[in-house]
Structures are given as C-alpha cells and as structure tokens.
Amino acid sequence: MPSDPVTRLGKALKEATAAVIFTGAGMSTESGIPDFRSPGGLWDRYRPIDFAEFLSSEEARRESWRRRFAMSSVLDVARPNGGHAFVAELVRRERVKVVITQNIDELHQASGVPSDRVIELHGSTMYGKCLGCERRFEIADVKRRFDANGASPRCDGCNGFVKTATISFGQSLPVLAMELAGSAAVSCDLFVVLGSSLVVYPAASLPELAKRRGATLAIVNREPTDLDGIADIVIHGEIGKTLEGVAMHVRAN
Ligand code: NAD
C-alpha cells in the first residue's frame, strides 16, 4: 500500500463506488468566504446570535440581518474553486454518491453537483424563509424592505419572522437532511472530510458513524481535528493544492 497519503486518497477515490464527501467552511475559504474558527474568521468579528435570541429580540433579528447584508459583498461574488470543481467531477464519475455540507453558500450546486446530491445540514444563507409558513424570500427584496423601514422583516402571508434559511445554534437540524446524511454515512465505502474542524455536533458525528460502519475515513484539513486519531488517511494541508494532487491519481489510467 502506498505510504503517501495523497496517493492513498487518490487510489481510494478511484476505487470507490459509493463515497461521501463531507465539507465544512474550509472548503470555501479559497473562494474568498471566511470560515468561523481560523484567525480573521467570522468568530473573531461576531458573537453568534442563537435561535432563542433571534426569536425573543427585535434588535437581535435586526443585527443578524445587518450581518447577512454585510456578507453579500463576499457571497454575491464568490465562485466555486478548484476543490468544488473536483468534487463535482467525482460525482459525475460516479465515485461519489452524495455531498454532505455544513456550508450555507450553495457553492457545491454552483459547481455542477445536482441539488438532489447535496445534503445541506445547516441550510442556506442565499435566501430567506418565514419561520411560520416557510415561504421563501429573496435576499435583495428583504434588504429593500429593511432599508426602507429599519424593522426586521415579517412574512406578508402569516406575519412570521423571516430569517435566512440557515440553522442557527439552538435551532433543530432539518430532520430529513439528517436522516439522508445518516443513511449515506452508514452505506458508503469511503467518507472524505474536507475543511471542517469537526467540532459542531451532531454534524461531526457522521464521520464517526461512517468509520464505525466500516467505511475508510479520510480527513483533509489545514490543522488537526479531534477525529484524526480514528481516520485511515489524514492530510494536513490546503484543500486546493491537496486535491490537485489527488486528482492526478483519480484521472490516471
Ligand atoms: P470551521 O470554521 O469550524 O472549520 C473550518 C476548518 O477548515 C478549520 O479547521 C480550518 O483550519 C480549515 N480550513 C480553512 N481553510 C482551509 C483550506 N483552504 N484548506 C484546508 N483547511 C482549511 O467550520 P465548520 O467545521 O464548517 O463548522 C462551522 C460552521 O460554520 C458550519 O456549521 C457552517 O454552517 C458555518 N459556516 C459556513 C460557511 C460557508 O458556507 N462557506 C462559512 C463560515 C461558517
């Protein structure tokens, strides 16, 4: 067996028939979107607003929308990077059956992975949703209203609070997405983590579950994670550069 972990990951992906890719915020830093925990990341700038606070405080709702509008300058221009493109290629090659993501930026879909192959555990920040009736709101429309009256947006239909379609701390994860992710984890032959600190649960329980059920577990992250000890392949490096090396092995005849 080759000892170089990049070669081993390339070989494992080439042989896989039902792999799962699991991505975190590190997947999108090379597209210009900061992660949470790296220096200069979002947590250096913002204290998180949890779900209970969003529900109970008009100022918290206004503040979370102000933050979202401030992120538009980054999110509106962000494009899928080489790592996203390689993941999309693996789906096309039928090596990867599903992409489970903690990201809320929709860049996997933008890179060409069909929406029904992407499981968004933490939702999407690319649109708003009424917490009462689940009606969809476009961010630009929400911003126009917010700029006009300064109040947090309410649903025209049911007067419910409109929030980005993301899962905040303290908010339940979408049941269907968690079920689909759980069944993908137990049935995959290879589970590859890309750019996640693996500290946010229950999402981080998925690689543990896949490993327990017999999958090969690979982790690519700039810094060590708590699950490195149980992984079969660990690469501490940049995702883009690492996947360029991995791609050469997958594409080789
Ligand atoms: P995290 O910030 O906790 O961890 C990201 C990890 O990626 C870090 O360990 C960091 O060292 C590593 N990393 C960053 N850039 C990298 C690169 N180019 N190559 C290799 N490794 C790199 O993020 P998380 O684990 O996803 O969990 C935090 C939550 O943040 C998630 O729930 C997610 O919803 C949310 N979030 C999403 C986005 C996004 O959608 N792009 C951005 C910020 C936060």
Overview of the structural elements:
With 253 residues, this protein is of the alpha/beta class. It has ten helices and nine strands. The chain has helices at residues 5-15, 42-45, 51-56, 58-75, 82-92, 107-110, 139-149, 175-187, 205-212, 239-251, and strands at residues 19-23, 96-101, 118-120, 123-130, 136-137, 162-166, 190-194, 216-221, 233-236. The longest helix has 18 residues, at 58-75. It is elongated, with a radius of gyration of 19 Å. Bound molecules: nicotinamide-adenine-dinucleotide (NAD).
SSE order in H/E notation? Answer: HEHHHHEHEEEHEHEHEEH
Q: Which structural class do the helices and strands define? A: alpha/beta
Per DSSP E runs of 2 or more residues, the count of β-strands stands at: 9
Q: Given the structure, what is the number of helices? A: 10
Give the DSSP E fraction (strand runs of 2 or more residues): 15-25%
